């Protein structure tokens, strides 16, 4: 992980803090990069024994790519959200998980039946809740809020409404940019676009590079990318499904606890190429999943006020679920 600039000095002296009852993260409002940074500081101050905050690099427009580590253990898993800008409800979910899991830990409580203290003493969860902060800013604040609106005018808008934007601010779809059978992607998007353009070269974007560096510098036992919409689980592709045997069982159990549908193995590299989870499987031969949270209802963000119904009620325990599964992998 090169050039890591801490967002906030790590608090190295564990402090006794009284058990906290009130929530820090409010997922019922548009969840911006600034809100996330502010909440991350409050969370780390409230739970200095188990939460640290870092940055793994910067976006095209210079925003910190926030890393939050939750737990005390040497074993690690990796969860990320908002590769796609309009799917920022995945960031709200991950931040709410950190809030609730840390509260359960401090209060010595189970969460949905999971033994939080044992799991977080054995593991640390690495969260990058917002892989694409420039895109999320565009979705939330509009075209005039970007640093170079002129450049944006040359990018092809698939959805005329900027709230339907998916790519980073260079017009590269970050989930098509990873070096995972990238050459085979053939989706007709040949220039910068609000979605689906794979970039002019593999791994070209700073956000993609930061995630790859993080994964290469940490021994993650499994990884998980949260997207929205569809209520489905991607768990395998034809290039790697035979070398990661336990992924299928894990996806079965994940489907059972969430109600999300386990999809067939992704067969076509020209469609699944360039994705984060596909890259992680090729690179590390370990399980990596993608959940599409929330019901499909078109290409604009869901109303934030419906966070519980659309996302939280089904997905709230998935972070702990993956820890529990990682325990069984070894
Ligand atoms: Zn997505």
From TrEMBL:
PROSITE patterns: PEPTIDASE_M14. GO terms for molecular function: metallocarboxypeptidase activity; zinc ion binding. The keyword Ribonucleoprotein does not apply. GO terms for cellular component: extracellular space. Pfam families: Peptidase_M14. The keyword Zinc applies. Keywords: Carboxypeptidase, Hydrolase, Metalloprotease, Protease, Zinc. Residues 29-330 form the Peptidase M14 domain. GO terms for biological process: proteolysis. It comes from the Bacteria. Its cofactor is Zn(2+). The active site is at residue 292. InterPro entries: ENP1_M14_CPD, Peptidase_M14. Belongs to the peptidase M14 family. This is Peptidase M14 carboxypeptidase A.
């Amino acid at each position: 992980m090169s050039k890591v600039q801490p967002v906030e000095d790590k608090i190295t002296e564990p402090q006794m803090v009284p058990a906290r009852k009130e929530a820090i993260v409010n997922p019922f409002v548009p969840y911006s990069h600034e809100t996330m940074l502010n909440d991350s500081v409050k969370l780390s101050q409230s739970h200095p024994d188990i939460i640290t905050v870092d940055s793994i690099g910067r976006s095209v427009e210079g925003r910190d790519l926030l890393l939050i580590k939750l737990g005390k253990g040497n074993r690690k898993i990796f969860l990320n959200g908002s590769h796609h800008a309009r799917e920022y409800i995945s960031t709200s979910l991950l931040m709410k998980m950190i809030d609730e899991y840390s509260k359960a830990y401090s209060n010595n409580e189970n969460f949905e039946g999971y033994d939080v203290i044992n799991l977080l003493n054995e593991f640390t969860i690495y969260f990058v809740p917002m892989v694409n902060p420039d895109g999320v800013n565009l979705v939330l604040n509009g075209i005039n809020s970007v640093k170079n609106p002129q450049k944006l005018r040359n990018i092809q808008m698939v959805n005329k409404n900027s709230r339907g934007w998916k790519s980073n601010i260079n017009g590269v779809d970050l989930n098509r940019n990873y070096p995972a059978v990238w050459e085979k992607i053939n989706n007709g998007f040949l220039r910068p676009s609000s979605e689906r353009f794979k970039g002019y070269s593999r791994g070209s974007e700073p956000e993609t590079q930061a995630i790859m560096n993080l994964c290469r510098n940490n021994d993650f036992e499994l990884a998980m990318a949260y997207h929205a919409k569809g209520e489905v689980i991607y768990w395998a592709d034809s290039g790697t499904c035979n070398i990661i045997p336990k992924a299928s069982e894990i996806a079965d159990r994940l489907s059972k606890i969430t109600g999300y549908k386990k999809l067939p193995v992704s067969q076509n590299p020209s469609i699944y190429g360039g994705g984060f989870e596909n890259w992680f499987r090729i690179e590390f031969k370990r399980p990596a999943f993608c959940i599409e949270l929330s019901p499909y209802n078109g290409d604009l963000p869901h109303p934030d006020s419906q966070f519980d119904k659309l996302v939280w009620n089904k997905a709230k325990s998935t972070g702990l679920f993956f820890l529990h599964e990682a325990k069984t992998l070894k």
